[in-house]
Amino acid sequence: MSSNTFGKILSVTTFGESHGPAIGCVIDGCPPGLALEADDFRVDLDRRATGRSRHTSQRRETDDIEILSGVYEGLTTGTPIALLIRNVDARSKDYGNIVDTFRPGHADYAYWQKYGIRDPRGGGRSSARETTMRVAAGTVAKKWLAEHFGIEVHAHLAQIGDVVPRGFDPAAIETNSFFWPDADQVPELEAYMDALRKSGDSVGARVTVIASDVPPGWGEPIYGKLDGDLAAAMMSINAVKGVEIGDGFAVVTQNGSVHRDQMTADGFTSNHAGGVLGGISTGQAVVASMAFKPTSSILVPGHSIDKAGNPVDVVTKGRHDPCVGIRAIPIAEAMMALVLMDHALRHRAQCADVGPVSPRIPGSVTEGTP
Amino acid sequence: MSSNTFGKILSVTTFGESHGPAIGCVIDGCPPGLALEADDFRVDLDRRATGRSRHTSQRRETDDIEILSGVYEGLTTGTPIALLIRNVDARSKDYGNIVDTFRPGHADYAYWQKYGIRDPRGGGRSSARETTMRVAAGTVAKKWLAEHFGIEVHAHLAQIGDVVPRGFDPAAIETNSFFWPDADQVPELEAYMDALRKSGDSVGARVTVIASDVPPGWGEPIYGKLDGDLAAAMMSINAVKGVEIGDGFAVVTQNGSVHRDQMTADGFTSNHAGGVLGGISTGQAVVASMAFKPTSSILVPGHSIDKAGNPVDVVTKGRHDPCVGIRAIPIAEAMMALVLMDHALRHRAQCADVGPVSPRIPGSVTEGTP
Amino acid sequence: MSSNTFGKILSVTTFGESHGPAIGCVIDGCPPGLALEADDFRVDLDRRATGRSRHTSQRRETDDIEILSGVYEGLTTGTPIALLIRNVDARSKDYGNIVDTFRPGHADYAYWQKYGIRDPRGGGRSSARETTMRVAAGTVAKKWLAEHFGIEVHAHLAQIGDVVPRGFDPAAIETNSFFWPDADQVPELEAYMDALRKSGDSVGARVTVIASDVPPGWGEPIYGKLDGDLAAAMMSINAVKGVEIGDGFAVVTQNGSVHRDQMTADGFTSNHAGGVLGGISTGQAVVASMAFKPTSSILVPGHSIDKAGNPVDVVTKGRHDPCVGIRAIPIAEAMMALVLMDHALRHRAQCADVGPVSPRIPGSVTEGTP
Amino acid sequence: MSSNTFGKILSVTTFGESHGPAIGCVIDGCPPGLALEADDFRVDLDRRATGRSRHTSQRRETDDIEILSGVYEGLTTGTPIALLIRNVDARSKDYGNIVDTFRPGHADYAYWQKYGIRDPRGGGRSSARETTMRVAAGTVAKKWLAEHFGIEVHAHLAQIGDVVPRGFDPAAIETNSFFWPDADQVPELEAYMDALRKSGDSVGARVTVIASDVPPGWGEPIYGKLDGDLAAAMMSINAVKGVEIGDGFAVVTQNGSVHRDQMTADGFTSNHAGGVLGGISTGQAVVASMAFKPTSSILVPGHSIDKAGNPVDVVTKGRHDPCVGIRAIPIAEAMMALVLMDHALRHRAQCADVGPVSPRIPGSVTEGTP
């Protein structure tokens, strides 16, 4: 069904189960001539990796990636780029107690109802381990977008439980293990997370991802809209329950005279739209936010049933993140980058002849969001 | 680019501009044997139509649909169903003043930057007129889902500006022109809308759509998730800036012990997930919400530029809705129905042999959402 | 299932039954700025039309096309181009005797087995009437290819029954109603066809289509090969039972030292490959041939069964062509043009940055085929 | 561009270069519950493998396949099945002389013109090595078709150079290294091939593949026809230059009264159509033939140019097959099986409710072809 494939011209197919022999992906449609080596994947895989701090799962994933195809003498050749990571530290025994049980809030029951069979080890295909390959594929897209358009894609944690950033300092985001834009709040967050871990519970989070320097004109009406594709991309990330473009749900209480981004010869006066109008980029920063649910893998016992239909109480021991939103930062960036690169290629397919169109509004204002 | 086509097995292609000769769609993949006639489209097209009350645009759209193909002696034959509506009441003159101007908050500038050419009459392809054909296609899907699974799809207005429903009476929704679930608040809403119209401004809205009796097992990991496809479908509706499944952004402040929907042999104890886990339906009601921005077609003057790059002030006279979310009710239902029918067909393609899987949790609880 | 849609970036969706209200198509992905008006479709629709000579079916199809969308002030806008033709001269009564009978050699029985329902009037969806819209869509592709690359696409009849062209004069092809490249043989063909018509029988034909001035580098390995897509396109034409690229089945008896097209700085020394190697164009003329079966709609009685399973004898009266290959000339051109334009757009999506690559072999030699 | 992906519901994505680290594929959409283990792939990989006899290339390909995902406890789970084969015996030095040269009749020049870069080792992506993964994926499809419908898919060599089978004994095909249906001719073929090898030349071949017991009703009009998809599948195999369904090009000289397969209550009286009418299976054996060109990798020197545009003479030493059609037998079967399984799934997606349709013509006659 190609349901494990994402993207139209730049397409990414992922495969693999959490505790199977390996996970991998095939990236098809990448233009030739892009410099690419295994080391390029290191930074983002580390940013996603568990074990980076005590606030994320302690599973050690070495995530050593192997490039199996599509690269010759350090350059992409235009043929499919296959990437592979062997699964090495999968303690299947940790999950032994869930083979016959459907964990509440997990995909166990849904997969069972769909397929009548499931690989229960570590959540099998529904595990967040799959997102490793999204991050890897996203690295290729980020690199291409930066080289060809100077586009930068950065995400940050915009809320965790009731805590919201008091300030917004882009430079702070990568200096703390929460990807939090206000360094002063980090101790407060650490205390919050420690208490949460002690309670055996988890909490949700809000992540915002911003792509700067996106040219105007990317995106396709009507069902291939840039924001429609972003919504699908973001909602397909494990644990995401909501997606916003620009002001998102805040528009419900706005008046039209406030919301519409006015234009002047010097630039837009605001960016409530999040850089997309009619499904097409406007030249402003493209801004998307998403809501991550609290993981259901917690120590607090929950009611469920087993395969025989009998009631059981479930406690998920394993190694899990009290806030999965934190590790999702590079995943959100990857999905944004993949959608943008796909649309860059789609745009030139249909509109390569159009050329620069005047008048073009200079600069971009990000007031409004975040 | 097939960007005007939606759906994988049940696919819908729409065409047409707001003030061109006609709009239409081609529905491909509908199973044979479904009874279908032009009258079937009447109810939802009327629910969407402008001119239904003084709170929506006064443009008269007769929206008389013609079935051009795919139906023989009152039954679908399995071949493509083409539907056509001629555009009859398009006062192009109303839009004459915007031929050389980019309206702020509209797709004018984005289309111009993409294509270097645009049909400015009534917004051309970016007009909400396109959604007429979504509603028509949705009628086919609703009918098929009801006949085959007893699925009902209903949407309602869940917020308009700062006003939220005080009560939730499903029976009230279709009795008032706001699709509002609390009949007592209707006079308040009318006063609110009258004041808004006088001020020449507009306001946003929140719409929630609920599908009941969806079987478990629909949806496809990883990039063909039911909620991922719903997100794309909803975000592709004009003016939508946010999509939620189940509790949506409320999950950010929830704990895992609260959010996860526990299971008993008698049913789920809550539906925070909105009926989808791991991208697959759980058998609970599927619940999606979306944020509609306030229309930018307002009488309040706004700054913009014209094609020569000169600053202009824009006032959009025409006939417009102060709250476009109201008319979006049947559109939201249509997109939900189209996604569900597509997934019903996709499910049986891959899993027709699986058959009913036990244990199956009975009933469905909708507590949590809306 | 989108099975009525063809092409990846330039996609064409057709709809309509032979004797329904109308047939039409939606062309999606056409670049903006192409001049297009209803008159552009006239020439090829006439070339395809029945009634052009006494050797093709006498049904009068006015085939007046209406452009419903996607064109503004004479130029394509980048949005979907919908085309419509009303069915006017459909004598359904001619087909009354086949409502309950499956004509041998037709799709009647296959459709019945698939759908359990069928529109029997004139063959319904399986009628060659559908190819009218292929021709119309092909006109757009031909025009675009000619303007952007100087590509010309021309087909001719290369065999009819046992008769093969003695000479090959491109200028002769459009001067006779057989699209035959040797004018001297036309009287012989007329006598052949008259005798055939008198006998109430039909005969097969071979059609060859050649696209000149196709740049090298179009086509995509592995499953999006230019020749693979051509094969699908040609085989999807009604009555086609075989497709060849370049020398086709003649390669079975060739030696490698003969078949391979050698290269010199002045050009290829032959074109046995038909302009495609590894699925990618070489810069030589792209050459495809196809075999059209003799129509099964003949006056010679044939054995069949009716819906009740009883044996019946079938005579198809109606108005039919004794050699459907003749009318297929513009259809073959259309499919070639659509595939080429799709690949032109796909090529620039992935390889727009590559630019002209040296060394480029000049000219093109068409020796070998036809 | 997903151009390395084949199939709509059962989709196969292949990756890998001839002399890269590995080749592999991802099979998506396979129904759950199919028994599958690495040993299942052995038979067909051996049938395809080089080194089986002195008449095929002497490269040793162990082709040990590893299942990376999608199988749990010996059963498919419905998630993507990834297969991997490491490249072990790739003597890159053999190809050193072609790094700067475009071999005539190969894809070298076409890839170079498309991408401006190519992996020359062993032909890189354009190598027939890719077909190993087609064979592997085909094994899954064959197994599923046999278990669910009793469908058998068998190919044989139907012509090599001027030699055609004198008799047709299905039991003989697998008893000789030529997959030849007349055992008496094997000595003659061996002498033919020995002489060919000595001359340093190669020759073409004709392969026919037959699928028996295909139910009626598979295939989708108009652009998703069973025969259209078969044509694309077959033409995408390396070296194929022609595809026929049923009688193929022989229809050119047939009369309609001969070609049409008449129907009786006891069965069809012939199978000129090759089991497909209107793009939909009729219940007869599905028959396809293809023409394989003689490999261009021969010892006979040929003219070409190098990267600098200078004339060169090319001799391809390496290890190559004098007749690549022989090894293509399991590849042809694989593509037939993949297309059929895809259509089986597509059929039940749209038509699962239709059920058995009467009257159904019993049995099947294969007279006519081969």
Tell me what you see in this structure:
Four copies of one chain form a homotetramer. Chain A has a single domain, classed as Chorismate synthase AroC (Chorismate synthase, AroC fold, 4-Layer Sandwich), CATH 3.60.150. In chain A, helix 3 packs across helix 7 and helix 5 packs antiparallel against helix 7. Chain A has seven helices and 17 strands. The model of chain A has no long low-confidence stretch (mean pLDDT 92). A five-stranded antiparallel β-sheet of chain A has the order 1-2-3-7-4, with helices on one face. Chain A has 370 residues and is of the alpha+beta class. In chain A, strand 11 and strand 12 (267-268) form a beta hairpin. Chains C and D meet through strand 1, helix 2, helix 5, strand 10 and helix 6 of C and strand 1, helix 2, helix 5, strand 10 and helix 6 of D.
Total of DSSP H or I helical runs spanning 4+ residues of chain A: 7
Helix share bin of chain A: 10-25%
CATH homologous superfamily placement of chain A: Chorismate synthase AroC
Query: Structural class per helix/strand content of chain A?
Result: alpha+beta
The oligomeric state of the chains shown is: homotetramer
Number of domains of chain A: 1
The unreliable regions of chain A are: none
Largest interface: A-B, 121 and 121 residues
Characterize the overall form of chain A: globular
The CATH architecture classification of chain A is 4-Layer Sandwich
